[in-house]
């Protein structure tokens, strides 16, 4: 399986959300903006020096810090 | 009285709908979290007065921050709930909807941004959604008032849903997916050039380029509008005003009253900038020099807010702001501070940690020039060309970065990471932009004008009884020795504490060289006016306030001294 974390995806790569780690409040927050298991996402932008990522999910753009992105397990979609 | 609560996800248009229903003017913008506290208003519903409450946005009833807690706590007071839903993101909004339906209160759904959903090829079967949720659903476009009448007409149809209560988050999400599959179809869209352009504004390289272009464009707009207002509105009006002023001056003759009301005549006539009378300089500086730039600035800010660009700017600048101990959201207090430091400092409340708030408040207090100060910089240096103005702004920008970097090192607390929901770009609606600009300008006028008039009065009296001259002698060695400025600049600097506008009138008659003026207007930046100091004290508390003051005094001595050595 081509599983990795969101933080390791490159710009313009696509993936589906496989699992969420971290506290339940954090997971709840991610799901409530649409980042939930099974959803297809695309990395719109990835900022240098451990900066944030911008992901597109369900036509919405979300900015997410690199540390948070480490807690999102994804499966690459070719 | 019956209470109706407007509740929904952030940035779905609750405040716009609230404004439509109650006629109360509220600041609404195209970014999440504009409403951090709730607002109350009234409307007439079939001859009966009802109370409408606009709650801050929340994704769920399990609140994760202060603003969301407010929203949740308001639920108990509601007799009827209007759940405002963004039709373009039905799936994420339905979580809150299902949580609300389980509260056993009458609910009605406003399916807002209906036009945008249609435009995006999103089709929602309203009838099916009504059947599944067992409450009325009304498509609306709050910004154009489409569907709002229908919503009001059907308010009494709101009812308690008979749906079975779901247990646990998993079940709720499963049910959300189930409903969405049944009611929503989305036409496939290809990535267009427009989409690529939109993406480019959040990427690291092109995003910076876009930020520079957009901010430079806004700066240009502020100048264009400000100067246009001065040329075509302010100057003609004040030329007309000359006639009654001259008549009054002649009638009063020379004496203390004439000196206070009209001031000193320059070359036998009133000079609006230099005369220092209450009816001349006291009126001209706030209305003639500062107000045009305040209007221009708030217009540009409204365009920036309503376009949806701000969260993108926060994303792109996040890296730099992290070095200053802030995350990208820190740009919002800074931008507001460019208008007036008071709302800028208040906006720091939206930041999460105490350290972030201290850093951003200190930075806004010391290094961000407010509109009055910017007007002063242009007013006194404009005639010597752009280079001196660039020196002032360049110094302030460099200082902003340096000071933030240093303040960040003083405490080990890590700044939390950025987590932002980016709204789509929207064309700002002229009437909404005009209304918002007017609301802020009105606020500025009611807050600023009495203080300016009082300040001018105080300055005139002090000048007339000779205190100013005494003070000038007293501060002369220091002003001369450290900053290379004449002693008379001392009282001008002190008057800047009251209002920045006042200091312009006191600086111009001193006949300083451009280099001296550059040093003076830069040093002015480091002393916030009394209103800003009061808000700083309130927001920071006495201990942090003293730290901020120490930073302020050190900075002004160091930077003023260095500039003096380089320039004079």
Could you describe the 3D structure shown?
The complex is a heterodimer of chains A (78) and B (568). With 78 residues, chain A is of the alpha+beta class. Chain A has helices spanning 24-32, 66-69, and strands spanning 3-5, 14-20, 40-46, 53-57, 60-64, 72-77. In chain A, strands 1-6-2-3-4-5 form a six-stranded antiparallel sheet. The radius of gyration of chain A is 11 Å and the shape is globular. The two termini of chain A are 12 Å apart. Chain B is α/β, with parallel strands linked by helices and 568 residues long. Chain B has 24 helices and nine strands. Chain B is elongated, with a radius of gyration of 27 Å. Chain B starts with a strand and ends with a helix. Chains A and B meet through α1, β3, β5 and α2 of A and α3, α12 and β9 of B. β5 (60-64) of chain A pairs antiparallel with β9 of chain B, so a sheet runs across the interface.
Strand order of the largest sheet of chain B: 2-3-1-4-5-7
Strand numbers in spatial order across the main sheet of chain A: 1-6-2-3-4-5
Biggest sheet layout of chain B: 6 strands, mixed
Radius of gyration of chain B: 27 Å
Distance between the termini of chain A: 12 Å
Report the average pLDDT across residues of chain B: 85
SSE map:
The complex is a heterodimer of chains A (78) and B (568).
Chain A: E1 3-5, E2 14-20, H1 24-32, E3 40-46, E4 53-57, E5 60-64, H2 66-69, E6 72-77
Antiparallel strand pairs in A: 1-6, 2-3, 2-6, 3-4, 4-5
Chain B: E1 3-8, H1 14-22, E2 39-45, E3 48-54, H2 66-74, E4 80-86, H3 90-101, E5 107-112, H4 114-119, E6 122-124, H5 126-133, E7 137-139, H6 148-153, H7 168-183, E8 184-186, H8 193-200, H9 204-252, H10 256-261, H11 281-307, H12 310-323, H13 331-337, H14 341-347, H15 354-367, H16 371-381, H17 386-409, E9 419-422, H18 430-464, H19 467-483, H20 489-498, H21 500-507, H22 514-525, H23 530-540, H24 542-567
Parallel strand pairs in B: 1-3, 1-4, 4-5, 5-7
Antiparallel strand pairs in B: 2-3, 6-8
Helix pairs in contact in B: 3-7, 9-11, 9-12, 11-16, 11-18, 11-21, 13-14, 14-23, 15-17, 15-23, 15-24, 16-21, 16-22, 17-22, 20-21, 22-24, 23-24
